[in-house]
Amino acid sequence: MSKKPNDLITVKEASKMSAKSVSSIRSWVRQKKLTGHKKNPKNKNSALMVSESELRTFLALNGKITSPNIGRSPDFSASIAEKDKEIKELKQKIEDLEIAVRTAVNLADSKSELIASLQNQVLSANNRLNHSESKTEQLLEMLASSQQKNNELTDSYQRLTAYYSLPWWRRLGSSQLLLVDKTEKE
Known about the structure:
- By secondary structure, this protein is mainly α.
- It has two domains: 63 residues, Multidrug-efflux Transporter Regulator, Chain: A, Domain 2 (Orthogonal Bundle), CATH 1.10.1660; 98 residues.
- It is built from six helices and three strands.
- Strands 1-3-2 form a three-stranded antiparallel β-sheet.
- Helix 1 crosses helix 2 and helix 3 packs across helix 4.
- The chain starts with 7 loop residues before the first strand and ends with a helix.
């Protein structure tokens, strides 16, 4: 079980703070969008509580903040304590948004680095492929040359074999004819 945060607020307070219904807050806890904590963990009927900072972060990241001032104009308060509280809440929202922006910028930077790395890998792979293709062409040329030489040697071997298979008296008169390629004579 996770450690209890120090900034726990009731679901009703979270509802007021986020301008959402109590059932919405409870639904977010059930969907694991927020972490729910019992005021007294040993009592299953204990009040459900959530972390204020976690709620603020969730609202900032998911764009779920709605204005409680829809409809009638708000009642203005002359209380300095109330204004200080509003300022504190606004500063907290700014901090939450700055964290969200930094996270988004870091994510964008990471994606840019990954894209650059992948592009470099593609270029390297293309270079290796081009090098392999040129080597393959060279090897094919060498193979064709070797096959031609092999054919020439085979022909020479067959002529020599035919020459040496003749009796000695026939070799005397035909030595020049059998050792010369027929295509060379024409």
